[in-house]
Specification:
The protein is an alpha/beta fold. Helix content is about 40%, strand content about 25%. It is built from ten helices and seven strands. Helix 9 packs antiparallel against helix 10 (about 215-230). The longest helix is centred in the last third of the chain and has 16 residues, at about 215-230. The radius of gyration is 18 Å and the shape is globular. S-adenosylmethionine binds near residues 111 and 117. One of its GO terms (biological process) is methylation.
Length: about 250
């Protein structure tokens, strides 16, 4: 796993710097819920981070029970503190060795984690083990060939770094097909994360994502200054929300 997430400072910054408006989180949860095939589903989140999605799914998917697995104790601590929910169990574990019995879940969500998993093929096999027949996996990521995050406009070197870190769509699909899954669809979905570029700049000052650990302090601050300048000259007709777009690949277990 990415050792960066073991850092308590990053875990705290991640919690503060990755919040999403309730409406955006709910729209994402509804997209995930559209792939649930039975009432009161049992859901697994791998790489649950600070628990935003796990708690959101427990809140809005009726009767759901969520097991939220993360490799980092620091991230789990933030999750238990900030996003507790009676229907969510936060557990330490790795994608390649999920702490659950076979045939336990109806759906698994992997949000912004697939690029951190060292052995993706093993993780796909592990998901095939813990999902029930008919179960689905929803992968929320940005595939290498479609890296388009706003941060690349201000930290261009991050794009080059992420081109090495993020897998392409074909690689991920191949790993899941080899593990016995069928590909249902690959779609794209975007939601606002902040109301303005100024708000976006303010949240990034805390360096809240592991990708920023790949930059020197000087590079980070130079990019932050570029982002701040862009925020100052934001649309003359008023601030516009900043959107984050993700690819969503859905796999089913026959
Ligand atoms: C970028 S965060 C994503 C958090 C959350 N899912 C989201 O979308 O905001 C990635 C998380 O995956 C965890 N992680 C990294 N590698 C992992 C692995 N092999 N197994 C389980 N969790 C892992 C990290 O500790 C971190 O909390």
């Amino acid at each position: 796993m990415s050792r960066a997430h073991d850092d308590e400072n990053l875990a705290g910054a991640y919690e503060r710097g990755n919040a999403m408006p309730d409406g955006s989180l709910r729209a994402w949860v509804e997209l995930v819920a559209s792939h649930v095939r039975r009432p009161a589903p049992s859901i697994l989140e791998i790489g649950s981070g600070t628990g935003v999605f796990s708690a959101g799914m427990a809140r809005w998917i009726a009767g759901s029970e969520v097991v939220a697995v993360d490799a980092s104790e620091a991230m789990l601590t933030e999750a238990r503190r900030h996003h507790p929910h009676p229907a969510v169990r936060y557990l330490r574990g790795e994608a390649e060795a999920v702490p659950a019995a076979a045939d336990s879940f109806d759906l698994a969500l992997l949000s912004r984690v697939i690029h951190h998993i060292p052995d993706r093929a093993a993780a796909a096999r592990e998901l095939a083990r813990v999902l029930r027949t008919g179960g689905r996996v929803v992968v929320r990521t940005t595939f290498r060939e479609r890296l388009d995050a706003v941060v690349y406009d201000h930290w261009p070197r991050l794009r080059t770094i992420d081109e090495r870190r993020f897998p392409g769509e074909a690689e991920v699909v191949a790993d899941f097909l080899s593990a016995g899954f069928a590909l249902e669809e690959v779609t794209s979905f975007a939601q606002p994360v902040t109301a303005s570029l100024a708000e976006y700049h303010a949240r990034l000052t805390g360096r809240p994502q592991s990708k920023f650990t790949h930059l020197t302090d000087e590079e980070f601050h130079q990019g932050l200054a570029r982002l701040e300048a862009a925020a100052r000259t934001e649309a003359p007709d008023g601030p516009r929300p900043v959107l984050e777009r993700y690819d969503v690949a859905v796999f089913s277990l026959g």
